[in-house]
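Weekend entry, working from home. Most of the wet-lab plans are on hold until the incubator is repaired, so I used the time to fold the two sequences that have been sitting in the queue since the last round of cloning. Logging both here for the record. First:
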Amino acid sequence: MSLADISREDVLKAMAEYDHLGRDKFLSRYGFRTSRRYVVVAGAVEYDSKALLGVAHRFATGEVLKAGDFSGGGATVVARATALGFEVRDLEESSGGVKLGEIDGVPEGTWFAKRADVAARGVHRNQQWGIVGNRRDGAESIVVSGGYEDDEDYGDVIIYTGHGGRDRKLKKQVADQSFEDSGNAALLTSKIMGTPVRVVRGDTATGYRYDGLFRVEDFSRGPGRSGFKVCRFRMVKIRPEDLVDIEPVAPAGNAKPVRRTTSSQRVVRKTAVADFVKALHDHTCQMCGTRLTIRGRGYSEGAHIRALGRPHDGPDEAENVLCLCPNCHVRFDGGEVLIDSDLSFDLDGEKRQLLRRPGHVVKREHVDYHRARHS
């Protein structure tokens, strides 16, 4: 048994069965898991590559290649699918990396005549998909075009329907959606990480308009108008005063947050520095050592040691931020846990030392200020 037995026609037959059953039933019937990296792209659908070729083998030989019978990597599934003329997408990569925040030279309200123009300016870099991004880094942009029957657009609030399960000819939902779909997974990561998403509104008839940055406030999955389960994302517009100019890589923040630095990207205020610190610690709490996960993604919170704003006037910089779990964050902010100048502290009667990582220096002056405030 070999992938070499599979023809392009066999793959197309497997795609037809995938479309008929829906993703979840297709994977369950043949014992495959969702693709974590490679998907075969056809039209507006992403097919789990390993499952697709495993079932395509049934149309070629009468026998399904089971998940344990072959590898789903680049040298096997990707090589064969590509050789047969199919487009394969790597979910761990995106062209040039995910680009969060606003795009230089494209202010909110910019109009574009064609979708290709939107892509060319880097506002939404894919001319077919409604969501650009990946599971690891989050979503950088979406297009709201009214294509999904469960979309609700209230201006500054959007109930956005995720990707998948829609029949383009019928213009209605014909299968369930899943948070494992790469676009939906990207928006889920944006919610967990608190990163901004560019929103483009419009269609081929009216043109397209860049409408600014939104944050994913909430998400859910349930029956839509056609009875199939859809992924919904509540997205709320980010106000201009909530934005700050930063360098897109390893931001140092601002010693005085009211000032703005010259930079190439704008992101949500207070998230850039905190996101940098959390990533540096891989979302592991510096106090208790706990690493929480939500749907396979690390989750932590950035805690400012010396609070921002008056009367504390703490700086928005990495030296003033700790990576904490929610419990430790609440206890630290409430003064329940106090850190000494040597970065030791008492936690539930046990003497501990603040966990450290190279590249993250904690300034003693901020720790001393917090301790003095709550002592």
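Second, folded right after the first finished:
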Amino acid sequence: MDSYESWSSHQNASTAELENRLYRFLQQCRQQQDADEVLQQFHQLFIQADYCPDETIWDIVVELAHRPYAEREFKYTLNRCSYTLANPWSTDPRNHWAVPALVQMFEQVPTTPAAMAETQTIRKLSRLFTQTEQYDALRRFANLIDDPAAGAPIAIDEQPVGKQLKRYPFLYDSSLLTKDSDQQQKNQVGKLRQEAEAKLGVQLARYCDQQKREGSKTVQNPTQLPSDEFAQALSYYTGKVEGNRSHRDLAQMFRTYSKTVRSFRDFKEEFLEYLLSPLADADPRYVNNHFRRSLRQYLRETLSDFDDQRLTDFIVITTCQKLLNFLVVQGRQQPVFRRFWQLLHDAGQTLTVGLLLRVVLFCSAVKPWLENRLTVLFNHHEKYVCKDVPWLVNTLEHTNIALLTNFGKFGYSFA
């Protein structure tokens, strides 16, 4: 009778109520047991899917797995259950190992027929979870926490691109968060990003100071760029590029000018000149080559219904977002980035990333959109070995320098 009443109460409870009971159970397990014991229970509940010492919790999981739309909704339950354990473990160095161990479990869900229909259903839902963007984000989170030094050292060139996420804090938000990420997860990712940016900023500052002084070379180059390329990039992103003005100075001047422009149509013509003047100065081909003509035509066609209007924040932000789509990559499902690759090949990393920097310095509201566009490229190539996509790795390194030195908040001026 007790079992029937328990089952009946679960049937009558809302999905949110059942999920919250499940999350509280996992929290209590984490607080009262060692990580390996918690992982074993998680495995029995969602991977082996045939046992739980707490029958009430087993009944809740079975009920959730059999609810209408479970194939569409259960991924959110699994995701939240995973982060209920992974987030606290990620802040405790003693339990860092448990985060990738948890994620790896989902790659080992049994495919053989199960004795119980409930087991078969839960296993199916766990396998489906590995095909979702939620699982992809969780896997990247595990890569971020995983300590590569724990095994035999592998040269970065031989490692998958996905293993380099830790090096690029500007990719964290778009790589680690999904539409259903709760505030706790957003806070955790924000904290990890802030810490990584501060650490890298200090490393860059110390290395720059060392480069200016004679004597011992004790501070290692924190980037994957050769020293001379690093120095050239740093000088370009923070130094004077036109007369006595930096990219930041020129962006401020153009922002001031844009407030006086008569129409959106006029703005687009001036915007083209602002964007491409460094490329044209460095390479006369960009005075009137195919890339310039394509970009001019694209800008002219962008929001053309607004051509006769004065600028608004909406017009500026939307235009800059569309511009970054044009320059970097358009979509996520089947990303096409031929134009970006060609620009890198023709103009080089420094000038290309400098062009992107000019966009976000002019309109800082689209900096997250630039980060998102580069994340699309990163995620698309994350299973590639680094040596097979040197153009992408170098671009990410340049972007790190450009964004940290112009937007970083670690109390050091590189100019």
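Plan for Monday: verify the second prediction. DSSP finds 19 helices and no strands in the chain.
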